[in-house]
Request: fold
Amino acid sequence: MSLTYCKAIHSGAVVSSNGNLYPCCAWRPSDSETKFKFTKISEFLESEQLSNFRQALDSGVKIPQCVSCWQQEAIGVKSLREQYNKSLTIDGNLNYIDLKLGNLCDLKCVMCHGTNSSQLMSEYITHREKFIKLSAFRTYDTTVDYSWPESVEFKEFFEKIKNNLLEIKFTGGEPTLNPYLIDFLESIVDKKKVTVWIVTNANRYNEKLAVVLSKFKLVHFAISLEGIEKHNDMIRFNSDWEQVSNNIRRYAESTNSKITISHVIQAFSVSTVIPLIQWVSQRKYNLHLLPLNGYMHLGLNSVPPDRISKFQGDLKLLNSVYAKQLLEELKNYKFNAEYHSQRIEHIKLLDDLRGTSLSSII
Ligand code: SF4
Reply:
């Protein structure tokens, strides 16, 4: 087996928030590759393009589309490729699907993008002239239709693929807001052979959804937290910590569930991640530390060296694998003064628009 072999590209697929198909969620599509909509699933799976990508990875070629896996492996972090190679089955069928059910979401997380949050998209449309003046901001394409998960075509697509699935992941946006999620899950016949992943902000608890999920082999709740208490409420704006922490406890109580807390490593982490590590450890949940995608000016390199030194000192006092992982991550730290001023400018605008005090966190 080659050092770049990946089961995801042989037995999995992702439907991205705009309805395009890719081999996995970490895939960075090139401008030149053909994009297939979910309605063209057969063409995608049988395409010469996908066959070429598979052959490249099978024979040890580090294709650029998989750069996030190569970067993680280079610093000793377990990549998605390594995780999939452990968890996925290859039997010639599409066994794994990751569905990013559009951008419908109830939160406006600082490091997120309108592609993944309808709330951020609305905020951008209302204050576009302020956002486009920022020196570092990825503008949003307001013309994309994110309502495809509610279409008849998507229901037909799900009907076509559902019976071979062994693992299914729902992300978003916030997947629990999708009006059809329960119907999709209920329509799977042999639920006891299927593992379900729900990537959620845990801001709401849906009783009917909990009943359906209890019928599956295993349910992984991957819950996104950027800190605890008011830190999480401000960074994941509109969330309510009391509700969130109660809902996590309820998810954890079901007998077929596993809880993983996900945290995006970013500038705020220097103040928020240590309390989060302690909270997670007390409850014996797993913590998944994720790289920040897209917004470089919101990353650790935007934090001045004296604050990073304090963070490193505090991490060294913690007896935790997560602290070790962060210390490892900090070996790549290099202060960037431009990112620093871009972050201050961006966060000030959000504080002005939302009435928050994000600027006080670091
Ligand atoms: S190597 Fe990584 S990015 Fe490439 S298909 Fe596999 S999981 Fe996805």
